[in-house]
């Protein structure tokens, strides 16, 4: 049991502070998602190059991810979660700056190349910073969850979704009022970096735990896995994590383009699918903790995957605007708990350092964001944008299959 936070008031302050860290993480890049088509148009990127550019963020996460556990052990999760927010803020600022400059740069190939290199490097920097922040803020969340003795981690990820939704709304407003990407990114970066540092004094102090073997009576904060070989457990958790992330990636990278260019929703409604997905995604995360506490993590993940498979699969088959909105809503709700529970289970593997297990699954889970955008972009270029959306029901099937690695509610899992 942690000793750094002992009173109810301190726990409430820590919960608000950690929620703010998740919020800023979602809001920073989320503020640019609805302006991605504008960035694509500014640089004149093909679908495949556009997908590859976005995937550089995941490449940065893959490169920096292995150092997350070491950074947390050396500096503590509270320091890393706040300080590395600077890297994400700088990346968002540079993306906005280069996109704005590209519009006014003319036809000079040299200038265009330099600006694109900076743009690509900014996506890379975002991924490097985000992968380390991801582990650190989740470590903070799991430490507080142990103090509560019940699931609360999905609510923190819900705050990430709220941040992404608020960032998306900010993107809609700046687009509507013709505010440049530079001003947009400057405002978003400064506010989120300032908030990240302001809440650091209220986060959980001290060294992070090095083991997770103990279980206390009545404590439902642990997400245990079946007593299979650790390599198999980690592999299935990575696939579970990737399945959930693929749905998020399809929403952020392709949903707006799909609704605009394939479903012909019009510029004003192009972002509606992504907004519906984000909204139900956030709502699902706020109710997921109580569902996990009542039914267990396996039932929640499996049920969510089935909802995605049926809901989005049916929506794509029908193809109408309203059906697609329902499909996106089902996808957001169904995948809401998948990534938090995959992280929670990786953090709670018996006999493994919590930061190590979490780092492995978070790191390899980012393969979804590294491989999916360019691969889907290549398929889209040779088929249609419908291919990008078929990923969603396939990922739902992946959640159903990999949920079997999670122990049933109340199961007595041995070491």
Query: What structural class do helix, strand and pairing data support?
Result: mainly alpha
* N- to C-terminal distance: 20 Å
| Main sheet record | none
The helical percent reads over 70%
Q: What would the average pLDDT be, to the nearest integer?
A: 86
Uncertain segments: none
Number of strands: 0
* CATH fold field value: Growth Hormone, Chain: A
Domain unit count: 1
The CATH superfamily is identified as: MFS general substrate transporter like domains
The secondary-structure element order is: HHHHHHHHHHHHHHHHH
Strand content range = under 5%
How large is the radius of gyration?
Answer: 20 Å
CATH architecture term: Up-down Bundle
Summarize the structure in words.
- The chain has one domain: Up-down Bundle (Growth Hormone, Chain: A), CATH 1.20.1250.20.
- The chain has helices at about 10-35, 35-45, 45-65, 70-75, 75-85, 85-105, 110-150, 155-175, 180-200, 230-260, 270-295, 295-320, 320-335, 340-345, 355-365, 365-380, 385-400.
- Helix 1 (about 10-35) runs antiparallel to helix 7 (about 110-150) and helix 14 runs antiparallel to helix 15.
- By secondary structure, the chain is mainly α.
- It starts with 7 loop residues before the first helix and ends in a 13-residue tail after the last helix.
- The chain contains 17 helices and no strands.
């Amino acid at each position: 049991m942690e000793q750094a936070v002992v009173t109810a008031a301190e726990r409430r302050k820590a919960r608000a502070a950690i929620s703010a860290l998740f919020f800023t993480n979602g809001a920073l890049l989320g503020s640019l998602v609805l302006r991605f088509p504008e960035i694509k148009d500014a640089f004149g990127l093909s679908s495949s190059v556009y997908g590859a550019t976005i995937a550089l963020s995941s490449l940065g996460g893959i490169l920096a991810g292995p150092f997350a556990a070491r950074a947390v052990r050396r500096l503590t999760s509270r320091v890393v979660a706040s300080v590395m927010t600077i890297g994400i803020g700088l990346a968002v600022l540079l993306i906005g700056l280069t996109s704005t400059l590209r519009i006014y740069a003319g036809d000079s190939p040299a200038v265009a190349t330099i600006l694109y290199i900076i743009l690509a490097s900014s996506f890379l920097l975002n991924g490097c910073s985000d992968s380390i922040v991801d582990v650190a803020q989740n470590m903070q969340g799991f430490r507080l969850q142990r103090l509560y003795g019940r699931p609360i981690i999905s609510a923190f990820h819900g705050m990430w979704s709220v941040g992404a939704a608020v960032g998306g709304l900010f993107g809609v407003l700046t687009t509507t009022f013709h505010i440049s990407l530079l001003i947009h990114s400057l405002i978003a970066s400064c506010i989120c970096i300032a908030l990240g540092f302001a809440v650091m004094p209220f986060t959980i102090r001290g060294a992070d735990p090095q083991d997770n073997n103990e279980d206390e009576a009545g404590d439902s904060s642990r997400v245990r896995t079946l007593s299979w070989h650790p390599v198999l457990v980690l592999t299935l958790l990575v696939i579970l994590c990737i399945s959930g992330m693929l749905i998020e990636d399809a929403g952020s990278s392709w949903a707006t383009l799909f609704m605009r260019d394939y479903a012909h929703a019009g510029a004003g409604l192009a972002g509606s699918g992504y907004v519906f997905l984000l909204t139900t995604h956030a709502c699902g995360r706020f109710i997921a903790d109580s569902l996990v506490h009542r039914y267990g993590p396996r039932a929640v993940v499996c049920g969510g995957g089935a909802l995605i498979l049926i809901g989005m699969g049916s929506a794509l088959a029908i193809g109408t605007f309203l059906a697609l909105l329902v499909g996106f809503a089902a996808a957001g709700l169904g995948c809401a708990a998948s990534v938090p529970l995959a992280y929670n289970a990786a953090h709670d593997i018996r006999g493994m350092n919590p930061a190590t297990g979490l780092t492995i699954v978070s790191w390899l889970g980012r393969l979804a964001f590294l491989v999916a955008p360019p691969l889907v972009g290549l398929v889209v270029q040779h088929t249609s944008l419908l291919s990008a959306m078929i990923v969603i029901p396939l990922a739902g099937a992946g959640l159903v299959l990999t949920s079997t690695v999670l122990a049933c509610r109340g199961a007595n899992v041995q070491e």
